[in-house]
Amino acid sequence: MYFLRFVGKRILQTVIVLFFVSVIAFALIRIAPGNPATLLLPDNATEEQIQEKEAELGLDKPVVIQYLNYMGGVLRGDLGTSYNYQQPVTKVFFSRFPNTLRLTVAMMLICLACGIPLGIIAGIKQGTVIDFVAMIFALLGQSMSNVWLAVLNIYIFAVWLGWLPSVGVGGMEYLILPALTLGYPLSATTCRLGRSGMIDVLREDYITCTKAKGIPDYLVYCKYAFKNALIPIVTVVGSQFGLFLGGSVVVETIFSWSGIGQLLNQAIGNRDYELVQSSLLLIACMCAVVYLLIDIINALIDPRITLD
Amino acid sequence: MENLLEIKNLRVVYKTERATGQALNGMSITLKPGESLGLVGEAGAGKTTTALSILNLLPRAGHILEGEVLFHGKNVLKMSKKELQNMRGHQISMIFQNPLTSLNPVFTVGEQIEMVLRHHLHMKPKQAEERAKELLESVGIPAYRLHEYPVQFSGGMRQRVGIAAGIACNPELLIADEPTTALDVTIQAQILELMKLLQEQHKTSLLMITHNLGIISELCENVAVMYAGRVIEYGSVEEVFAHPSHPYTRGLLGALPDMEKNQERLTSIPGTVADAQNLPEGCRFHPRCEHCMEQCRSKQPYPIALNHRHMVECFMYEGGDGQ
Amino acid sequence: MKKRIRQLICSVLVLMLVLSCAGCGGNDSAADTTAAAGGTQAEEAAQAGSDDKIINVATSESIVKCDPHDQQGWPGRAGVAMVMEPLITTDHEGNFFPLLAESWDIAEDGLEITFHLYDGIYASNGEVFNADDVVATYNRILSDNTLNTTVNYWSRLDTVEKVDDLTVAFHFTEPEACAMDYFTATFCFPDEAYAEYGDRLWLDQIMIGTGPWVWDEWVDGQYLHLTKNQDYWKKDEYDPYYEEFYMRFLTEESSAIAAQLAGDIDAYISVGGISKDSVGLYEGTEDTTEIIEMKTSLFHFIGFQCEEGRVFHDMNLRRAFSMAFDREAIGTSLIGDNIEVSKGGLSFSFTLGYDENMDSPYYHYNPEEAARLVEESGYDGSEINFLIGSNVPYGENIGLLIAEYCQAIGLNVNTEIAEIASFQDRRKAGDYDCYLTTDGVNYGEIYNYMKTRLVSDIHQSHYVNDTFTQLVEESGHTLDIEMRDELYRQCNEILAEDVPHINLFCSPKIYAINYGVTGIQLFPDGDFNFSRIDYDASAVK
User: ipTM surpassing 0.95, yes or no?
Assistant: First the structure.
């Protein structure tokens, strides 16, 4: 009962947030200097040609009218037409979105598979060689710039060793390098979180109490301590997932992994208003869903959240 | 009757980067089956350390320098992991001091009781659930609350859950580490009632750790008074309370407000409790003792039997002299 | 009860995670079914490399749409050109060659141009291609004033008329000086296909044409995939070894080079050329990859704000600025030895109006004279805003060097790098003292440049010179190449004197093509064409 009420409240909050996002996205892209009509025409277009283009794009109407038209369309399911692509925004966006989704999920899996176990083990075996190794791993991951890591990966694995293809979208072998580039720094963060979380949890009274009940170590760590240590991890990693659903411009550009990060970046440079507004709205929507899921997961792990 | 539990000359230190704290300095007690022993002392005397040492559950910073803890004649400190895990929660159970932090917040109270049932008594989940419900009822918590979380319970009720988990496997020895300190007086009374009842029903040995003398007199047969990591006075509750011998014990008992007398001020023991990181030479109590003699400053007092039910560690009683 | 709900939600979440993992194995797409097919093909293609009959060419810009008449960038045009053909082709130096048209006649007054088509042309779907198709193509262009092709090329085209099955006549309202060039960049589609599909011909990527390649699919941000037209109407002239062609969009230069070094692509044709510093990455590949440096028409120029009350209203200050820095030194140090420095006006060895004797004193490096002019002018030392677009190759470095030179002669020049959109905005409003950008000269033609930037003054520079205006207008109407040459020569003389714009130098572009790959046409104006791409085993070292 509490649970459903909790979820309901969050959904309502999300809708309000999305409304604000639409207004802000709409306003921001228009505040930026530059005229999309000018950018669509060659460098030496005349004033008349520019104005004609503006009228064609609907930019000659007052801003408020433009917004209302746009929102009217959104509520009907029409997210506008991209100026550059001259295709519906949904078509352009969703032709690229699966790539970003795959990349983000792969990144998450790498993070979950490497970061969490390493962090938990480092926390349990604090002060030992494993802990030391894990900390080095985490330090490297957090200090490397992702540009450098991306280029390094390409040059080592694709050019020098030739094990993997260098750039482009495709199946598993194309996914590995970009996913690793994103996944490694995230694993590093997760490892640290897991480690410090675990150390904190293991200091708690209830862990001593559990041990005093004679519960074997593996259960104490992997079940009773782990669930508590998971709480900060879920929040951080989950929010990173939401963040990267918006695409990672750097990795997408370097690997030519055509995703929505690159799309949005180019759209902003081209002042493609409709594409930018609706992309931001869609990304906000997806982030909202992800954050809602995180909250639900958190509530499932830690019952105190719904009960408080 | 052989001793259920015997601690022999236990020395434990806590080592941190900054200093070393001498928590236990030659601690020795014995406990027979069915006996209830009270362990009294101020904060920092080493009571909880003793309890944890019995289970070999000292934190990372704790190191055992010498001594033995014998349970049924076997040295706990030398037991294998498996043996320890079998013993803990099964033959020896501990009830922790702070009910607000000793229950795992993300698991139901049922789970926290059932885990011992499943592990030690090898019960199936369904069985364990039924038994857990019974246990909850026996400590005065309605059975339907089995699936609720600790956050939904008050402090007193959480402590009861802790007790339920502690008695779940019918332990031979129950260590209660200040079980009512964090609770208010009325709840205290209830918990104590409960413990008395359980003790009578199951004939469990009880090691009651507390700084509350009233509880000792309610629940315990014998009492051991600790100061600076040693037992400085030991005897039956009647003996020790009627004839407190060690200056410290006297101070403790004197500090209790007397309902009968008209008192302006409570007797207090001068000075502050000994700092484990900086213990005085000789008798640890000597800086605060009004009867301090020359030898107290340099020599460690040894146990002197006053009679067959009373022991004290104080040079005042050397040579068999009385007061 | 509650526990059940929790367990249910937990299992749902786990299921969702597992399902999204499934997306990692294959290639899931939401809306575009074509994209799904692309995934596995990309895999196969990359594994192929040059052992197979698949050629991978990387470009630095993407294609955004498939409309043959609405392409803004070179890669798009190059892609379309492989599938749909223009009437004629050019070497971009003023010479024209037959493609769909066998021969042509240009009327004396320049108002009518007639083309005679080859007999026996057919499209990839077997449809016969003749005058009807040409008329349909150009009528479509004329009917839509928003298309790039229409706007850029055909503002003076009035009507297109079918004379007979193999003859088409074009009627102009005024003589269009660059008409022949424009014909080489306008691609024709078959009329029956257009009648059937309309705009869906490119919106749905059906793209039927007469070209030697067949459009398979374009995946946004990834690649364009073409397959060989097994039944090309000019098969006896061009029958490539390759069966499949991929144009891969790799916007990041270091990634593209890495891909070439790894063997994933066979040629890297960057629109802006490979930057000089990155060429070193190809070290060690001298046996497999050829580094080609092509002189192109890409030139840097600086425009001045000449409005009254502004710093550069004073012609002498403009001259001083122009003499303050050493064009050759800047160019060779940043770009290389193969630059061509301008001697005065928009005049390079391949442009119309080139005068080899041109030697404007204001284009010399003469800091003493420059300093003298500055002092005489009474310049008050106020800050001069030097606006530079962020997309200008070497723009920041050139700007900083020039600013340093200027400071040395007493001009307080302050560079400002602006994003493309802001740059265009500012320039359009005239909000600058001087700006640096680049342009290219297509087909050697400088008319567009002269007309729009200086006469029509789209950058609000407030420079007016009636003689100059007259000369430019006249050249727009003249079809006679020699006459235009003379007119532009005179224009440049004025430019070299008045210096409302100063030209710096013309840069080469660097491309990297693996040995064995032939038929990539690289033109001196920076344009390129892949439609005759082929493989020559003997050229492989």
Answer: no
Nearest beta carbon to residue B89 from set A204, A212, A308: A212
Token couple for C540:
């492989």
Task: For chain B, list the contacting chains (3+ Cβ pairs, <8 Å).
Answer: A
- In chain B, DSSP finds a helix count (H) and a strand count (E) of 10, 12
Q: Nearest by CB to C221, from A109, A258, A300: name it.
A: A258
Tell which of A125, A209, A221 to mutate to test the B interface (max B CBs under 10 Å). A209
Cβ within 8 Å, pair C424-A52: no
Residue C306, φ and ψ in degrees, nearest 5: -100, 15
Q: What range does the domain containing A227 cover?
A: 89-269
In chain A, whose CA is at the least distance from the CA of B111?
Answer: A224
Per-residue pLDDT of chain C (541 residues; tens, 9 = 90+): 456 666 777 677 667 666 655 444 433 333 333 333 333 334 444 444 445 799 999 999 999 999 999 998 889 999 999 999 999 999 887 789 999 999 999 998 889 999 999 999 999 999 999 999 999 999 999 998 888 898 888 988 999 999 999 999 999 998 888 899 999 999 999 999 999 999 999 999 999 999 999 999 999 889 999 999 999 999 999 999 999 999 999 999 999 999 999 999 999 999 888 988 899 999 988 889 999 998 888 899 999 999 988 999 999 999 999 999 999 999 988 888 888 888 888 888 878 888 888 888 899 999 999 999 999 988 888 899 999 998 888 899 999 999 999 999 989 999 999 988 889 889 988 899 999 998 888 777 888 888 888 888 888 889 989 999 999 888 887 877 888 889 999 999 999 999 999 999 988 889 999 999 999 999 887 889 999 999 998 888 7
Interface residue ranges in chain A relative to chain B, Cβ cutoff 8 Å: 203-217, 224, 227-228, 231, 301-304, 307-308
3-state helix, strand, coil in chain C (%, to 5): 40, 25, 40
Superfamily of domain C296-507: Dipeptide-binding Protein; Domain 3 (3.10.105.10)
DSSP A52-119: HHHHHHTTTS-HHHHHHHHHHHHHHT---B-TTT-SBHHHHHHHHHHHHHHHHHHHHHHIIIIIHHHH
Chain C residues touching residue A256 (CB < 8 angstroms): 221-222, 248-252, 255
CATH number of the C84-199 domain: 3.90.76.10
